[in-house]
Amino acid sequence: MTFPPLNEQMDLIRRGASEIIPEEELVKKLEYSIANGKPLNIKLGCDPSRPDLHLGHSVVLRKLRQFQELGHQAILIVGDFTGMIGDPTGKNKTRPSLTLEDTRENGRSYFEQASKILDIDRVNIRYNSDWLAPMTFEDVIKLAARYTVARMLERDEFEKRYKNQEAISIHEFLYPLAQAMDSVAIRSDVELGGTDQKFNLLVGREIQREYGQIPQIILTMPLLEGTDGVEKMSKSLDNYVAFNDTPEDMYGKTLSIPDQMILPWFRLVTDVPAERIATIDAEMQRGQNPRDFKRELARAIVSAYYSPEAAEQAEGHFDRVIKNKMAPEEIDVFEVPRNSDTLLLDVIFEAGMVQSKGEGRRLMQQSAVSIGEERITDPTTPVPSDDETVVKVGKRRFIKIVRI
Fold first, then answer.
1. Which tens digit of pLDDT belongs to each residue from 256-279?
2. d(CA 281, CA 290)
3. Which of these, 366, 397, 367, lies nearest to 252 by C-alpha position?
4. Which of 58, 83, 138, 239 is least surrounded by Cβ atoms within 10 Å, i.e. has the fewest?
5. What is the pTM of this model?
6. Using CA atoms, how far apart are residues 107 and 280, in angstroms rounded to an integer?
7. Dihedral over alpha carbons 184, 50, 120, 14 (to 10 degrees)
8. Total tally of structural domains belonging to the chain
9. What's the CATH number where 152 sits?
10. Do 62 and 88 sit in the same domain of this protein?
11. Domain ranges, residue 88
12. What is the CATH number of the domain that holds 370?
């Protein structure tokens, strides 16, 4: 197999990366790969506890796709077994454990969404229960003997909990060891992860060495700040752009990011060339309105997950609905009996505009529900008697209520 030249590969691999540990070993692996026509095994573990993917997940997935484009073998490890342990990474307490069935189902959802970025036909998908479940208690003891408690307590989360006298269960020490066994099982050459996974990935290097393998290279990617520009992108913080968002929501959410996030988002979640990003940086420093570049960013993101045509339509929708405060051209219709006293709160809940009536009440109290220019703040407000009523919920959700 023929691979691109070493310098070309390294230029692409370095793009956006936080750390390559150690870079000189990666160069040696690539030189061997080129000389022998043998692709490297590039490992990425996917979290089966969180099957809904957003742009934060795309950062490392895009790096895996770049390795695919260079001709290397992408290997996705579904942590169906480790998902039953619960990983404390980035937490001050362990993550809830799952059943094997839960992790398998979540893994399937992960693949479907990841296919928007990866060439899924060239991905080797492995479940770590294949090698972890058959291990005996003797095997686990021998594995545990290859790493020390002192080294485990170097991990930030464990160190903080230990100092605060918070409980650390023994099984939590087994998580990074189990993840390391994934690297042993597939003979990983390079493992990808976010900067918050650095400890686990380094344990993999040590355990591979213990098992007589050439240690994998660690490549960490930055954690993407969400639409608030402060916290790591997360669904729980509602600062995310999901892979499955509509083009309109994807476009609108992107335009809501703070100006300082424009360049990091261009670098980490788009294929816009580095030269163009440098030009954008220079033009913003000269005082050009950042809004213009947010639009370019939003179009690039929607185009990547849908199409350029969808991006153009999403921009038109934004200009009509958000910028010019007009109703969209196409609105879902909800019918109510002509002489009923149906509450507006009931309609927006039954129409799926809110997930619960409690959420609907909160939005009303926050003046986020309106009819025309009138804010509806009273949850007992009935549907107007007009033949047709357009209701706006939040910034981008509309429904037309029709009396029949």
1. 999 999 999 999 999 999 999 999
2. 10
3. 397
4. 138
5. 0.78
6. 38
7. -70
8. 3
9. 3.40.50.620
10. yes
11. 6-221
12. 3.10.290.10
